[in-house]
Amino acid sequence: MALKQTEIRELIAGHKLRDMLFDVLGLIVMLFALLVLGALFVQLVVDGWDRLGLDFFQSYPSRRASQAGILPAWVGSLSVMLVTAMAAVPVGVAAGVWLEEYAPKNWFTEVIEINVTNLAGVPSIIYGLLGLGLLVQQFSLGRSVAAAGLTLAMMILPVVVVATREAIRSVPQTIREAAYGLGATRWQVTRDHVLPYSLAGILTGVIIGLSRAIGETAPLITIGAVTFIAFLPAAPVMSEPPFLNFEWLTAPFTVMPIQMFNWVSRPQADFHVSAAAAGVVLVAMTLLMNGAAIYLRYRARKRIKW
User: Fold this and answer.
1) Over the stretch 197-252, which tens digit does the pLDDT of each residue have?
2) Boundaries of each ABC transmembrane type-1 domain copy (predicted)?
3) Residue 146 and residue 248: Cα distance in Å, rounded?
C-alpha cells in the first residue's frame, strides 16, 4: 500500500512538472510573439513619425509625397465599416439566435450550420468575386461604398453567426428553465435573459469580424475600389430637411489598405514613409475599435447579476 501511495505521489508530481513546463513554454511563446509585434509596430512608428500630423489627415493624395494625405482613405474606411456593421451585425446576431434557440434539430439546420462554419474559412477574394457578380453587376450597385460594405458584411457574417451561437451556448440552461418556470415565453426568455447574458461574447465576435474587415484589400480591389481619389463622398447628415443624405452610399471610394498598397508600390522612398504613417493610423483605428468593444463588454458584464 505504501508503495502504491509513493507511485501515486510521483505520478502527480510528474504531471505537475509537465503542467508547469507547458505553462512556462506558453508564456515564452506569447512574450516572443508580443515582442515581435511590438518591434514591428515601433519600427512602423519610427518610419512614419515625420508624416504624422494634422495635415496628413486633412490632405488629399498627391503625386508629391510631402503633400500626400489620407483624408479620402480614412473617411472611406469609416464609411465602408459603417455599412458593414449595419448589414452584418443585425443579420448575424439574428441568425445565431435562430439557430441556437429556435431552429429545429433536423438535417436542414445541420446543413446550414456546416455551411456557416465552412464559410468562415473561405478566402476573402472569393467574397470579392461574389460581390462583383452579385452586387456590382446583378444588383447594379456599381463600384460604390454600399457594394464594398455589403461585400465585407458577407465576409464577416459567418464569424458573427458562429460567435453569437457560442456566446448563447455558454448561458447556463438553468436560467432558461427558471424563466420558463415563471411563465415566460420563448421570446421573453431570449430577449430578457439569454441575450443580456451573452452580450459580452457577441460583442467579442463582432469586433473580431470588423477588425478583419477593416484591413481587407483583395475583395475591395475586386469590386473596383480606386487607388487615387481627390474628393469626399457627400455627408450623410445635412442641416436642411430631410436631414439625411444617402448619396454617399453610391459614391466611389478608397480605403486605408488600398492607399497604403498604392504608396508602397511606388519606387520613391518618401511614399514609403507615408505608407508607414498610414499603417500606424490603421493600427490605431483597429485598437480604438477593440477598445470600444472591451468597454462595452465590461459594461455588459457589470450589469449582469448572477
Assistant:
1) 888 888 888 888 888 888 888 888 888 777 777 777 777 776 677 777 777 788 88
2) 74-293
3) 8
Element (H, E) at 254: none
Give the CA distances from residue 208 to residues 25, 52, 271, in Å, rounded to whole numbers and listed in that order: 26, 27, 30
Which residues are within 8 A (CB) of 49 and not within 5 positions of it... i.e. 6 or more apart?
Answer: 277
Residues 47 and 41: their CA atoms lie apart, in Å, by 10
pLDDT digits (tens, 9 = 90+) for 216-230: 888 888 887 777 777
Cα maximum dimension of the chain: 89
Look up the pTM and report it: 0.83
Section 30-41 average pLDDT: 90
What distance lies between CA 181 and its chain's CA centroid?
38
Confidence of residue 3 (pLDDT cuts 50, 70, 90): low
Of the candidates 216, 75, 88, the one whose C-alpha atom is nearest the C-alpha of residue 158 is 88
For the chain, the domains span 2-49, 52-303
Backbone dihedral angles phi then psi of residue 93, each to the nearest 5 degrees: -65, -45
- Give the integer Cα–Cα distance in Å for 143 and 251: 8
Q: Report the C-alpha gap between 142 and 231 in whole angstroms.
A: 18
CATH 1.10.3720.10 fits 52-303, yes or no: yes
**Residue partners of 146: CB distance under 8 A and separation at least 6:** 83, 135, 249, 250
